[in-house]
Design a protein that fits this description.
One of its GO terms (molecular function) is ligase activity. It is found in: Membrane. This is O-antigen ligase family protein. It is a multi-pass membrane protein. Pfam families: Wzy_C. It is a single chain. This protein is mainly α. It has 16 helices and no strands. α3 packs parallel to α5 and α7 runs parallel beside α9.
Length: 455
């Protein structure tokens, strides 16, 4: 590391420790209002456990690349990390089973529609897997199904978003601590094919690479704003924007800035939050602008991989999109299943760098689920966006914008296996929310002197 990079990492570490002050204030306020519950805990555990094996590997071994006898980088994790992954997968399943049992038997929970639609997508991809000779179920696929079933009976709204905010804070704080303990671990070396970002580093925190971390951070910014109350969320949101920029990912930087801009434009409020000016609402022009932005980003995401062959220069993405389009025409209705693309790496057809996904949410869905899968995905997005009507639209738009932006060149939501972003999918599907005004009124009476800071 250069002296400038060391200084930048030190600054990030200091800001991370300072972020604990507003975070502690926000958690205290959440306790007073009763925002944290079993749903928050479930989302937090899903996010922390799913990322535990990879982050543990980074912390324990550092960022030294493992080379084979031929000098090529070894892809994958050692056996102890894989064994930890098996344990973690079992723990997530156990958490979901206990949560479902508690919500059905004790809380008598209602079924949430959005997670149910998501479950249908998972089942559709699994059926396509079976039709094309792939294993019907794998452990991480069963875990994803269990997580979505748990979300189907979870408490929608602020509690789920608060759990999502806690996930990003846990891992950003771990990265900040590691910045002091072993600064070289939190950055990846800059290369000609992967140059440094605006801050002169590729900040990955405790994750194997900066792309995974940047996607998690950018997608979680609306969770922090919507899940927390009062002024404390403002410095936390801008801290996360800084972290997203520090990762060196241009897509994450743009996504984070766009997310904050839309939050500032719409100033969304959840249905369980008292509106001090109930007759004003959001100006129609702002609704129109937000809808236009969402529609435009969606159109670009759809058009990028479907453009004429070799008509753009997006490196390896162009090649894999063209390959996927050529194969998709032989199974356009149901696609090839959620496991088909990653299986190409085992057969030597694609490199490891692009084996997790097609790096675009839309063509990834089209390849895995065909036209049926893509339509189901569109139904899910439309339901999340419009179910709450005019009151729920701002919050839903702010949650979906980072997902749609990231979908241009990444696949933020997986419907084939549980992964690092499953917690974000769960939190998003628990929007919009029904009003709990009566339940919160009694709490607000005890907090009346501070209500002006809660808007």
């Amino acid at each position: 590391m250069t002296q400038q990079q060391s200084t930048t990492v030190l600054i990030i570490g200091i800001l991370t420790l300072l972020s604990l002050i507003p975070w502690a204030i926000a958690l205290r306020r959440a306790r007073v209002f009763g925002d944290w519950d079993l749903t928050s805990t479930m989302v937090l555990l899903i996010g922390v456990l799913a990322n535990l094996p990879a982050t543990a590997y980074t912390i324990v071994t550092g960022r030294v690349e493992q080379l084979d006898p031929l000098g090529d980088t070894v892809v994958g994790f050692p056996d102890w990390v894989n064994r930890l992954g098996v344990i973690v997968n079992g723990l997530i399943l156990l958490v979901c089973v206990l949560f479902i049992g508690g919500r059905l038997l004790v809380a008598r929970a209602r079924i949430n529609v959005a997670p149910f639609i998501t479950t249908v997508i998972v089942l559709a991809l699994a059926a396509s897997d079976a039709l094309h000779g792939q294993p019907l179920w794998t452990p991480r696929q069963l875990t994803l199904l269990a997580v979505l079933l748990a979300a189907s009976v979870a408490r929608p709204g602020r509690s789920a978003l608060l759990g999502g905010a806690a996930v990003v804070m846990v891992y950003s704080v771990l990265g900040g601590i590691e910045s002091f303990v072993e600064p070289a671990t939190v950055v990846r070396p800059c290369r000609s094919d992967n140059p440094c970002g605006e801050l002169g580093i590729l900040y990955a925190g405790v994750f194997p690479n900066e792309n995974i971390f940047s996607l998690l951070v950018a997608a979680s910014i609306p969770f922090v704003w919507l899940g927390l109350r009062g002024w404390a969320r403002v410095p936390l949101v801008f801290y996360l924007v800084l972290v997203a920029v520090a990762t060196g990912s241009f897509l994450a930087s743009v996504t984070a800035v766009a997310a904050v801009a839309l939050l500032g434009l719409l100033r969304p409020r959840l249905a369980d939050q008292r509106d001090p000016t109930p007759n004003t609402g959001v100006a129609p022009g702002r609704f129109l602008l937000a809808g236009t932005v969402l529609a435009g980003v969606t159109a670009v995401g759809l058009a990028l991989p479907l453009r004429p062959t070799h008509s753009s220069d997006l490196g390896l993405r162009t090649a894999i999109w063209d390959l996927a389009k050529d194969e998709w025409t032989r199974s356009p209705l149901l696609g090839y299943g959620g496991k088909a693309w990653s299986a190409k790496y085992n057969s030597g057809e694609i490199p490891a760098a692009v084996s997790p996904s097609l790096h675009n949410q839309w063509i990834d869905m089209l390849y895995a689920g065909g036209v049926v899968g893509l339509l189901l995905f569109a139904v899910l997005l439309a339901y999340l966006l419009f179910r709450g009507g005019a009151r729920g639209f701002p919050a839903a738009a702010c949650v979906l914008l980072p997902v749609l932006f990231a979908s241009l060149l990444e696949r933020p939501w997986s419907f084939a296996i549980s992964n690092s972003m499953t917690f974000a999918l769960v939190a998003a599907t628990l929007l919009p929310v029904a009003a709990r005004a009566q339940a919160e009124t009694s709490v607000q009476h005890h907090w009346k002197p501070r209500m002006m800071s809660d808007v």
